[in-house]
């Protein structure tokens, strides 16, 4: 079994989701109306903070659900690829670029 050491801004992509969510907005006349808006999410694993104090310590990886600007983010990547992620001004993932590293999972018996 080998270990992978993450570089800064690297994440292990494990999947993604997209869909429509119902939101309530005001129309031009000030009337509240229900509108469906698209959403795009990327699921990743990343290293936890290396910050330590007398009352806090963490190790290994953390799971995150990140908002994406569009579904174009995952068009050229596959699950279990290590990727560099780039964010827009709204802190959404705007682009994911594979590092060429792929992580394999070993079978376990539950």
Question: Which helices and strands appear, and what pairs or packs with what?
Answer:
Blueprint: E1 10-26, E2 32-47, E3 61-67, E4 81-87, E5 93-102
Antiparallel strand pairs: 1-2, 1-4, 2-3, 4-5
Keywords:
about 110 residues; mainly beta; five-stranded antiparallel sheet
Averaged pLDDT: 89
Question: What fraction strand?
Answer: over 45%
The amount of helix comes to under 10%
Poorly predicted regions are none
Number of helices: 0
In spatial order, strands of the major sheet run 3-2-1-4-5
Structural class: mainly beta
Question: Would you kindly provide a brief summary of this structure?
Answer:
The protein is mainly β and 110 residues long.
Report on the architecture of this protein.
With 110 residues, this protein is mainly β. It is built from no helices and 5 strands. It has strands at 10-26, 32-47, 61-67, 81-87, 93-102. A 5-stranded antiparallel β-sheet has the order 3-2-1-4-5, with no helix packed on it. A hairpin with a 5-residue loop joins strand 1 (10-26) and strand 2. The chain is extended, with a radius of gyration of 18 Å. The mean pLDDT is 89.
